[in-house]
Amino acid sequence: MPRYGFNMLWMFAKRGEREAFPPDLRQLDFIARHGFNFIRVPTDYRFWTRADDFYNPDERALRKIDGYIEAGRERGLHVSLNIHRAPGYCINNPPKDLNLWTDEAAQNAFIFQWELFAERYKGIPAEELSFDLLNEPPGPGTGSFTRERHQSLMRRVIGAVKAIDPGREIVLDGVSGGAAAIPELSDTGAVHSGRGYSPFTVSHYGAEWVKEPPGGWREPVYPGGGWDKDKLREHYKPWRDVAAGGTPVHIGEFGCYNKTPNGVALAWLSDLLSLWREFGWGYALWNFAGPFGVVEHGRPDAVYEALDGYRIDRALWELLLENRVSGAM
User: How much of the chain exceeds pLDDT 70, in percent?
Assistant: First the structure.
């Protein structure tokens, strides 16, 4: 999957009455101009769903998604449409009223969302649009989640989408927050989407929404704490095994929060990116401009440089450019 780019958070999380943002065309122009070819758009279904009426979507919000896809296609950017918050599940602040893994109402509503998109975007080539079904399912031992329930639901959704649009490309995130491979779904023909957040004590050091480790946060080091490039290679072995069987693998999210010292972040990201290049995997940074991004992320000691109107972390930018597979673009 030689696709390289960024996560765009225009419809990421519904808060109050705030509407989704329009596509940032200036950012997309920049991304395309510098040879990237992919954007992942995580969405919250509550933007297009009125209250709990799952089956009468808000056409105004859907037209925003139309705009995301069209803006990407116009610039040669593959758009991967992802449901980040689904009826009955979200890795951030899970809903309490429905449970995607046990409630038929939540499962039927989830399938309806993808049938809606399958019908709406039927005919757009798979090279230009994919459906990333569910962001970061949990892991075994998390509430009522099991791999068997997850597998059953993903197969139902894939079947529903393919019944409407047989050629649509499907993406499945790994379980355990995207970190664990899912070989049990290798026969579906879907792309498998991994993550680049391990070790979490480096990628999410000081993150306010993350449960503080026992004893509090300790300033990260890398290599160190049991992690180095060899450990990272071992971490991705289950994913490499899946890829060796013919399943395409893509890293749908990775990045480092802005509390980690920039030297540590760059050392870790350099090892990650060089491994993915070795494996032939594409990637999408979370995000473009923000605390995990390449534009003014705010990590201590970062050195910024002006480029086409943006202040970028030049060292990180060079890592992103250097670690694309030669000829992939």
Answer: 98
Q: How far apart are CA 45 and CA 84, in angstroms?
A: 8
Any idea how long the chain is?
Answer: 329
Indicate the helix (H) or strand (E) that contains 131: strand 129-132
Question: Mean pLDDT across the stretch 147-158?
Answer: 98
- Comparing CA positions, the residue from 246, 259, 164 lying closest to residue 209 is 259
Compute the distance between CA of residue 273 and CA of residue 259 in angstroms, rounded to an integer.
Answer: 20
Q: Is 139 exposed, middle or buried (0-12, 13-18, 19+ CB in 10 A)?
A: middle
Cα–Cα dist 218/212, whole Å:
10
9-56 residue pLDDT tens? 999 999 888 899 999 999 999 999 999 999 999 999 999 998 779 999
Q: State how far the Cα of 91 lies from the Cα of 317, in Å rounded to an integer.
A: 29
Short-list 242, 276, 277, 252, CA closest to 130: 252
| Confidence class for position 189, pLDDT limits 50, 70, 90 | very high
pLDDT at 326: 62
Confidence of residue 168 (pLDDT cuts 50, 70, 90): very high
From the CB of residue 49, how many other CB atoms can be counted at a distance below 10 Å? Answer: 20
What are the φ/ψ torsions at residue 119 (nearest 5 degrees)?
-70, -40
Give domain limits for the chain: 4-322
Contacts of residues 54-59 at CB distance under 8 Å and 24 or more positions apart, as own/partner, are 54/87, 54/109, 54/112, 54/113, 55/109, 55/112, 57/116
Pair type for strands 38-44 and 78-85 = parallel
Nearest CA to 14 out of 125, 92, 119 is that of: 92
The overall average pLDDT reported for the chain is: 95
Query: And the tokens for 268?
Result: 């870790």
3-class state of residue 310 by DSSP: strand
CATH superfamily, with its number, for domain 4-322: Glycosidases (3.20.20.80)
Q: Read off the pTM.
A: 0.96
Report the DSSP pairing between strands 4-7 and 282-285.
parallel
